[in-house]
Amino acid sequence: MAIKRLFVANRGEIAVRIIRTAKKLGIETVIGVSQGDIGTLAAEMADRAVVIGPAASAKSYLDVNLVVHAAKATGCDALHPGYGFLSEKPELCRLCEKEGLIFVGPRAESIETLGDKLAARALAIESGVKTVPGTDHIANVEDAKVAADKLGYPVVMKASAGGGGRGMFKANSAAELKASFEKASREAETAFGDNRLYIERFVERARHVEVQIVGDGEGNVVHFGERDCTVQRRYQKLIEEAPATAVPDDVRKRLHAAAIQLTSHAKYRNAGTVEFLYDVDRVDFYFIEVNSRIQVEHPVSEEISGEDLIAFQLRVAAGEGLGITQDQIKLSGHAIECRINAEDPYNQFLPSPGRIKGWQPPTGEGVRLDTHARENYLVPPFYDSMIGKLIVWGKDRDQAIERMLKAIAEFRLDGLKTTLPLSAYIINTQDFRDNHITTRWLEDKGLPAFETTLE
Amino acid sequence: MAIKADEIAKIVELFYESKWKEMHIEVAGMQLFLSTDPNARLTNNAMVTTAAASSVMQPVDSSAVPAPQTSTPAPAAAEKPAAPEQVSANWEAITAPNLGTFYRSPKPGAAPYVEIGQSVTIDTEICLIEVMKLFTSLKAGANGVIRQICVADGDMVEAGQPLFYIERV
For the whole model, what pTM was predicted? Predict the structure, then answer.
């Protein structure tokens, strides 16, 4: 391995995760921690921990110059950004390159292209991957009718200048189109001072499906199957699984092909995720975006493939190529991950930082826990509320579900509130077991039902 | 007769340019100890009190949250203060705000901002911390006398690490 000493520019469970793989590969590790993270598990596991700045992320984990300075001053030859924080900042990538550090991530240009929604859409279209069908600006109701007929109902009218759901109006049929168009146009004018609209196909029942890939930067890309992350609250994923058994096999194959096509065309280097919206009714999928980092939910793909994705990141960053071909990647069984957030699901998901007083994680066949938490750990209020991820593997989805329910029941965690009881509730619902959920299911149906279980 | 400040500066400069590792001068009841080793300390020195300093060891970082108590600190962790017996109870640490390279002088070859025994005010610049070629000067933050310099010129310092000890006046 060309990398001898790796700087970990992150914290929490992903820092622990990165250090584990580095150790396995014989790479020394240095972690830069904030003053809020002194003495944490990752700091203990690393060969060396240096304190880079105050607890506030802006003055520590988010300071590009600081982390690069720390990496150089401690003699590191590579830097792993983890996820979040600086992981998708092209500035970090550029500075590493300039200073002769291997950046464990994509090239800066890839981050820039993929980070920009319009540029990413253009790239998708260029490489023949479908995006949500839509139009350019639509001038009047007559043109809107022609376009909507072509797209197929339902459609949604969106303000060109809009965002955040404002100026969006749905039309279920041609009869509704005129009224919707006029409303959307008016609201666009009042809200944004710009009444221009465009029309998109509306996906009534959607699932979030994403493909895990690794590229070597030369156009060679392999995939590790797809994940289903449909259980979301306010666009935050809560439960992820692999494979996406709600999607027919032939469509899954096409998803993989599309993901490889797009990232191969971009000569993408690093582990990455190509996200798609899966249209349940039309049995079709549309490209959303590429995440050019390792993702929180990567363990479910590791569990069904038996591969170490962090190791692949290090390999391709060091210029050592993929070292694996697609037919060597064998996927088997089913994996589910529940994010453990220090939030109170019984009380509007209020953050629940504090000290973990009791800690007895579950064990048993097929159970994996990625965490930096332990007994007496003080969950600081400065960072993301996620304190770990509980992952199970089973020979099929039903066995994975049973294992997860058993694991959560066994998990003793005192001192803070977490989202685990909600996860157990969701997994045990008939809708989840039957796999009939959509991205809106949790907020529309799951949570209201969960709330009725409370006194 | 005592040595004048500019003479001390001259001596320090000579020492800096020499290949010597240590220099110890006693003149008219005053002692001057110079060393290239940041951990070197003058022994048998009447000036250096041996009082215990448990209280001054703590203010490494007043803003930090309590770290988890379960474990021993990581190897080569943040605090590398001077040995406790060499810090007087009424001295206070001036700590680094972030990780960086510590410089005692405004530019290479120039006299250091401050020396041991020098009086400083809140606004006196006492060192530079460099992060990727960006130099930020650090002020004393208190009125007092510099009693100890804990770090050698050009060393990496970590956030919260004591750089100087000051005795307030």
Answer: 0.82
